[in-house]
Design brief:
It is a single chain. The chain is of the alpha/beta class. Helix 3 runs parallel beside helix 20, helix 8 packs antiparallel against helix 11 and helix 8 runs parallel beside helix 14. The longest helix is centred in the first third of the chain and has 19 residues. Bound molecules: iron/sulfur cluster. The site of iron/sulfur cluster (SF4) has 14 residues, from helix 1 and helix 6.
Amino acid sequence: MLFGRGQKNPIKITDKQIVEWKYATCGYCSTGCSMEVGFNKSNEAVSSRGVGGADVNRGKLCLKGIMQHELFTSAGRGNKPLIRQHWHQDFVETNWDTALDATAAGLKKIQQKYGRDSIAIISTGQMLTEEFYTLGKLTRGLIGTNNYDGNTTLCMASAVSGYKRSFGSDGPPGCYEDFEHTDCLIAWGSNLPEQHPIIYWRMKEAQEKRNFPLIVIDPRVTMLAQNADIHLTVTPGTDVVLQNALMHVILNEDLQDKEYIEKNTNGFAALKAEVDKYDPTTAAKICGIDEDTIRVVARLFAKANAAMQIWTMGINQSTHGSDGVVGINNLALITGNIGKPGGTSLSITGQCNAMGTREWSSCSGLPNYRTLENPEDREEIAQFWNIDVDFLPTKRGLFQTDIYRAIETGEIKGLWLIATNPLSSLPNTGRVRKAMEKLEFCVVQDCYEDTESAQYAHVFLPAGTWAEKSGVMTNTERRVNLVKPIIKPIGDSKPDFWIFTEMAKRFNVDNKVDFPVTSEAVFEEMKLLSKGRLCDISGMDYENIEKNRGIQWPYTEKQVQNNEPPPAGGKRIYTEEASFSYADGKAKLIALPFIDNNEVPDEKFPIWLNTGRLVEHWHGRTKTGKVANNNKFSPIPFIEINPDLALQLGAENGDYVRLVSRRSDAIVMAKFTNRVSKDMVFLPFHFHDCANRLTLGLLDPHSRQPAYKQQAVRIETIKDQRAAAQLSMEMRKF
Ligand code: SF4
C-alpha cells in the first residue's frame, strides 16, 4: 500500500459510463494491435483498450493507441468539400457533386492538354486495403497516369526493393513469434520501444524467458540500445561496410551454412569476392566499429542455432537503404536464417497499412505483387478488370520523390494528394513548396483540412478517418486484420472508398469496369486475384478475420476446405527448400560495393544531424498534435544534444538554438542528454517547418527513398530567446 493513500487523496478512476465496446485495429503503426473503442450512451467514443485474446498485442496498447478514440472529434477535421479557382484565394464550401466534378474535370483537362502522365497521384500507407485496391483500379484502369505512388516511398521503399532483389518478391518472411525461438537478435537502426512499443514488449518478454543476446546497431543510444548486450555506434550511412565485414569474418572462419547456400541461393562466388575486400581492420576505419567487436558479433550471429535480424528507418532512409536491406538478407542467407523459427530477416514496417499498399495498391505495379514489366501479369489484370491491355504501362512510373522533380521541370502539372502531406514529410521542404506553387491543378483528399499541403489545393475532399471506415489492414508480420466503421464520418466527410468509387463513375464512361460498392465485395474480388500466389488470402473473410483477431497470409481456400484453422501466429514464408520467388526458387546473394556518397560533417557544418520519431507522436503530427494527451509530452521542436557539445557552444539546457544546414535553418530547443555523441544531434522530425527544412534527401538509386538521417549542420546560439520562442511557436501552428 502506498503511504497514507487510504486516508487522503484516494485514486479515483473516472467512470466513463461506457455502454458498448466496438472492435477495430489500431490505425497508427504497423504493429497491428487489436483494440476496442468504448462508447457511452450518447454514442460518444470515450475510451480505447487492447483486446486480450489478440495474438499481436495480448491486451496491450501504447500511448498512441490508448488515446486513439480522441481522433474522431479532434480539431482541424475537414467536414465539407471546399473549392477555389486559385490556391491563394479563400476556399468556399461546396457539395460533393460539384467537388468531384471539378476534380475529374481538372485532371482530365490537364491530361488532354499535356498527356496522360502529366498528372500524378500520391497516396499513403494509412488507408484500408480495399481503398488502395480501388484507387489502383481507378488509376491504372481508367485515369491512366503512370505517375502514381505512395508516401511509403519515404519509409518502406528500401525494404521492398531489398526484398525483391534478394528473394524475387516483396513480403517479410518472418513474424513476431520468431522472438520466442531466436538465439541471437540484431536490430539495425530500429528503436522498437519508441517506434513499435508493442513489438518491443513481445521481444522483451521473449528475451527475458530465453536470454538471447541483443545486438543493437545505431549511432545513437536509443532506448533499445540501452537494453542491448552489445551496442555498435556505427558511423552514419556505413551499415553496408559493417555487413560486408561481418560476412568477411563468417566466410573466413568457415561459419557459413554451406548446405543452405548450395540448395537455396545463387551468386555466392561474386559475394565472396566482394566481402573478401572488407577485412575487419580496414572496415573498422570506415564504419567506426572496432575490429574485435566486428569479429565477436559475426561469430555470435553465425554460431546461433537460429539468428534473427530486424530493421527500420536507420537502414531504409539512406542512399544505401536498398543495399542495406540486401546486406541483411545476405547475412541471413549465408547462415541459413530464413524461413525457420527464430531465423529471419524481418523489416519492421512503418505505417499501419504500409503492407496493404505494397500488396494491393498497384503503385509500383499491379495487384498482389504483380508487375507491369511482366506481360502475363498485365494480360491477366487487363482481362480481370475488363480494360484494354495496351492501356497499362509496361514499366512503373515515377516514385514520389521523383514526381516532385518532374513538377519542378514542368512534366507534371496536376496532383491529387491522398492522406499525405509532402510539405511536412519530404526532405528540403523549401524546394517542395516552390514545386507546389507551380502546379496548375491540385486536389487534396484528407481527413484534416488544416494540413500544410492543403494550402495549395484547388479542391479539398474531406475524408473519413480510421474506424469511420470499413476494410482490412496488413501488419508487419503479414497479418490481415479488420477495421469496422464504429462511428459515422464527421460532418459531410466520406470514406476514401466512397470518394474513389464516385470518382470512378466520372471516368468509367461506358461502364466497362466494375467497381463493387461495398468494401466486403472488394475484398472478395481481391481474394480471387490472390489464389495460388505468395500473398494468398483466399481463405479469409471479414468474419473469420475478426474472430481470429487477424489472420496471417498466406491462408488459402484449400486450407478452409480441409478444415485447417488459421495459425494463431508463427506463420512464415520461404520455409521449403528453394521456395523463393525467382523462377528457379533460389534467392540471390548480391555483392555490395560501398561508395560513400553521404553528406558528412566538415568545417562549415561540423555536426551530424540524425532525425527520427518519438513515442507520443505520429509522423507530421497531423493527428497526434491535436490529441492533448499525446501532444503534451513534446509540444515543441527540440534537439537532443550532448552537454559537452552544448558547453562548447555556450548553450544552456532549455535554450533555443539555430540549426543551419546547406538547405535552410530551423529553431529548436536544446535538451541535454548523453544519448547522442559530441559530434551529433538528434532532431524528432514531427514538427512542421523544422527537420525537413534542413534535410538533404539524396535518393537511394534502387528504391528512390530519401536519406533523412545523414546530413551535416552547424549550431548557433541565439541572443534573443524571447524572439526565438515566438518563432518556435509560429513554426508549430499546424
Ligand atoms: Fe497502435 Fe502501434 Fe501503439 Fe500498437 S504499438 S497501439 S499499433 S501505435
